[in-house]
Amino acid sequence: MTTAIPDKPLPFRTSWTQSFWDGTKRGEFLIQRCSNCDTPRFPPKPVCSNCWSTDCREVPAAGTGTVYTFTVQYRAGVPAFANDVPYAIVLVELDEGVRVMSDMVNCDAEQVHIGMPVKLVWDPPSEDLTMYKFEPA
Ligand SMILES: [Zn+2]
Questions:
Q1: CA–centroid distance, residue 20 to ligand 1 (Å)
Q2: CATH numeric code, 62-137
Q3: How far does the centroid of ligand 1 lie from the alpha carbon of residue 19, in Å?
Q4: How far is the CA of 49 from the centre of ligand 1 (A)?
Q5: Between β-strands 117-126 and 64-73, what pairing exists: parallel, antiparallel or unpaired?
Q6: Could you tell me which of 101, 111, 75, 119 has the C-alpha nearest to residue 11?
Q7: Strand, helix or coil at 135?
Q8: Structural domain boundaries of the chain?
Q9: Distance between Cα 45 and ligand 1 center (Å)
Q10: How far does residue 90's CA lie from ligand 1's centre (Å)?
Q11: Which of 46, 85, 109, 135 could bond 72 through an S-S bridge, CB–CB 3.0 to 4.6 Å?
């Protein structure tokens, strides 16, 4: 007997994050830069955490960085991920200075380590949403 695997949950989109998700559909990973002090920020936020300015611009990140920290998931927290274990969840520091969390793909979870060079890859789970993940650079 086999049990159907449910669909994976998708990110919740808001008015603050919609332009970010529009960017991923074009193959761009957009980060915000404060128009007043140039501090980068991610995820999208209405206010700069450095100077409290509400003015910002969106710029595409290069898509490269290093693993800041990670964990390996050996047991699916929800049934939708049952076929993926074991897999690594990584917190990546992009070259622009912001930290981004996602899954590591295209490598064994046991090979992931702090300081590992990585790059973004695109994973479209549905027609209207393109997800991002990381792979070894
Ligand atoms: Zn600022």
A1: 19
A2: 2.40.50.840
A3: 20
A4: 7
A5: antiparallel
A6: 101
A7: strand
A8: 16-60, 62-137
A9: 12
A10: 27
A11: 109
Condensed to tens digits (0 to 9), the pLDDT of residues 56-70 reads 999 999 999 999 999
Distance CA(128)–CA(126), nearest Å, equals 6
DSSP of 40-89: EESS--SS-TTT----EEEEE--SEEEEEEEEEE-S-SSGGGTTT-SEEE
Ligand 1 centre distance from Cα of residue 26 (Å): 27
- Token look-up 């991920």 returns 81
| Cross-strand pairs, 99 | 93
Which pTM was predicted? 0.90
pLDDT in tens, 29-57: 999 999 999 999 999 999 999 999 999 99
Residue 33 C-alpha to ligand 1 middle, in angstroms?
8
**How many Å apart are CA 53 and CA 36, to the nearest integer?**
7
For the chain, the distance separating the N- and C-terminal CA atoms, rounded to the nearest angstrom, is 40
